[in-house]
Amino acid sequence: MARLLLLDDDEALAGPLAQYLARFDFQLEAVTRPSEALKRLAAERFDALILDGMLPEMDGFEFCRRLRAGTDPWHAMPVLMLTARGDLTDRVVGLELGADDYLPKPFEPRELAARLQTVLRRLRLAPPASASSGRLCFEGLEIDTVRRIVIAGAQPVELTSTEYELLLMLAREPGRVLSRDEILNRLRGQEAELYTRAVDILISRLRRKLEPLEAVKTLRNAGYCFALPVWEGA
């Protein structure tokens, strides 16, 4: 059973939501303040965080930023943000700060369950190994598909689960152009609503983390492709 931590100051939400998510083999624990969430994350293991955008002490966007910037064992855990509005600004900010997905309020519990299942499925299913080594090797970059580790210039690169899946998707087919819509649909494992800006944000985050490597190339009006040469010694 996957354990989820809900950080939302709406105390009335936790009970009914926990009861509903239990149908999908999720165990939901809830806190209402960021300070409480940090204590729970330090003391217990959770598989994903459901994070509201509007909170006391600090808003959910700042909490997500600090989470991703930290070095604690849970800093890369999947984060699904709940936004009070479904507007572009909230979505862009959440994704730029490292959230794996977003859902505007009010939301359907079934959609929340589906998105959580997709995020956790990406995290749990080890990608098929490349040849016999389980590694994808390029000039300046190595991806260990068994341990889900990325090494760039001999240094480990910390990626969120979504960033890792995006990199792996592109690296498995070097030179092939993937459109924004195709990337969205593959990442979510379902037909995604048209929101091409989300892909641009993920690509931008990935590029920053892989600098100075120019691993991802943009093809105007077409999409993105992986541009690093395969390491012949692999």
Automatic annotation (TrEMBL):
A molecular function GO annotation: phosphorelay response regulator activity
InterPro entries: CheY-like_superfamily, OmpR/PhoB-type_DNA-bd, Sig_transdc_resp-reg_C-effctor, Sig_transdc_resp-reg_receiver, WalR-like, WH-like_DNA-bd_sf
Any single biological process term in GO: regulation of DNA-templated transcription
Modification sites for 4-aspartylphosphate: 52
Keywords noted in UniProt: DNA-binding, Phosphoprotein, Transcription, Transcription regulation, Two-component regulatory system
CDD domains: trans_reg_C
The keyword Phosphoprotein appears for this protein: yes
GO cellular component, one term: protein-DNA complex
PANTHER family: DNA-BINDING DUAL TRANSCRIPTIONAL REGULATOR OMPR (PTHR48111:SF4), REGULATOR OF RPOS (PTHR48111)
Protein name: DNA-binding response regulator
Organism of provenance: Roseateles depolymerans
